[in-house]
Design goal:
about 375 residues, alpha/beta, 6-stranded parallel sheet, 3-stranded parallel sheet, 16 helices, about 10% strand
């Protein structure tokens, strides 16, 4: 089998995951998906229906590869478990999918876990439920022979507790941690307040990913047009919001340079997920230009920002990115991963064909690096025979 690593795939969590895995003091208030009086499902957080995750969203979360009519029917049904593909909920089915696609590994992230933290009532609640997910995903991946890779959900409300959970999760088999683009304190990700987490990651020699997710309204970057009347066919302006989704990750990522986090932690490895890769060259140029001019007095970095990117950062590209070869030529092939986003509906299901199309003109060593070697080194994956 070739070394071909999906660096950002997803699971769809069982509706009762948190009520089963959260510590006993939290179980009565546990996150759960329950059937509403109208026959559709509701994501319940702390005993209240979620406002930012609708029934339509729950029905359509596993829609990759479906026709528009099929996806619309699933979303309108509002039924979560009935519309999930087996490979998103069963590890044996997921490994079978990897076999069909010719993939050696999949690095796994949650789905509801990218949504619920924005509506958690407080940091302690968020931490307890992140830990519950981690215990579940460790079990989900345990029997896969290393092909399914667990990454721990870390809530930044209490950096010391998050660091302790990262240590526990890595001992239990996780290959790294991930954080969302918002912070409970409002302090930027790179701020020294969060150093316990980055110190733990450096000590454990595991990467930290920043993954897109739902932001609390008070921290949301995309609410400047709230109140606008969108065309009736798109009342929530989903396409527009998806276009802007990467900006939160880009801002969180940039704070590691403003606060010289990579100087404090020269072996910290940061992964940028579900944000595309075509912006990276522009971002590096702009960071370097601003850091070299008069604004240098506001920066504490010892080196150019691009130097840290080329040494300590990785970015996952979408398989359909036509600019990927140009980015690789400019930045270097060793900085890039690729991701399927399976089973989410915001991408088509032909990711293998798209990846082959956009990497076929690369040199063989660059193609191998993007397809799997970079991810294998980053996550210390066992190589296939």
């Amino acid at each position: 089998m070739a070394l071909l690593v999906d660096a950002d795939g997803h699971v769809l969590e069982p509706p009762d995951l948190w009520s089963r895995y959260v510590e006993p003091p939290w179980r009565e208030r546990a996150i759960r998906v329950r059937r509403g009086d109208d026959g559709r499902d509701v994501l319940e957080i702390d005993g209240r229906p979620a406002r930012l995750t609708t029934s339509e969203m729950l029905g359509g979360l596993g829609g990759m590869g479906r026709t528009l009519d099929e996806l619309a029917a699933a979303a309108l049904s509002g039924r979560y478990a009935e519309n999930v593909p087996p490979a998103a909920v069963d590890p044996h089915a997921r490994c079978a999918l990897l076999d069909r696609e010719g993939l050696s590994h999949a690095v796994l992230y949650p789905t509801l876990g990218l949504q619920w933290e924005a509506e958690a009532p407080d940091p302690a609640y968020a931490h307890a439920h992140a830990c519950a997910y981690n215990r579940w995903i460790e079990e989900f991946t345990a029997g896969s022979g290393g092909r399914l890779v667990a990454v721990a959900h870390l809530s930044l409300g209490d950096p010391v507790a998050a660091a302790a959970e990262l240590r526990r999760a890595v001992r239990a088999g996780a290959r790294g941690g991930f954080v969302l683009p918002f912070t409970w304190s409002g302090l930027p990700h790179g701020h020294p307040h969060h150093d316990p987490v980055w110190a733990a990651a450096q000590e454990l020699d595991v990467p930290i990913a920043i993954h897109t997710g739902v932001d609390p309204p008070a921290r949301d970057l995309h609410r400047r047009f709230d109140g606008v009347t969108w065309p009736e066919a798109v009342p929530q302006a989903i396409w527009y919001l998806q276009m802007l989704f990467p900006q939160a990750v880009q801002q969180a990522f940039s704070t590691f340079f403003q606060f010289a986090t990579f100087d404090r932690f020269p072996r910290l490895r940061v992964v940028v997920l579900e944000s595309g890769a075509g912006w990276l060259g522009f971002w590096m140029d702009r960071m370097d230009a601003l850091a070299a001019g008069p604004l240098r007095v506001t920066m504490m970095l010892r080196e150019r920002p691009s130097d840290y990117v080329r040494r300590q950062c990785w970015i996952a590209a979408d398989p359909d990115e036509g600019t990927l070869p140009a980015m690789i030529a400019y930045v270097g092939a060793d900085r890039f991963l690729w991701a399927s986003d399976f089973p989410h509906a915001d991408h088509a299901g032909d990711y293998r064909a798209e990846l082959a199309e956009h990497t076929r003109e690369l040199a063989a060593d660059a193609r191998r690096a993007i397809e799997g070697e970079n991810a294998a080194r980053l996550y210390r994956l066992a190589l296939p025979a």
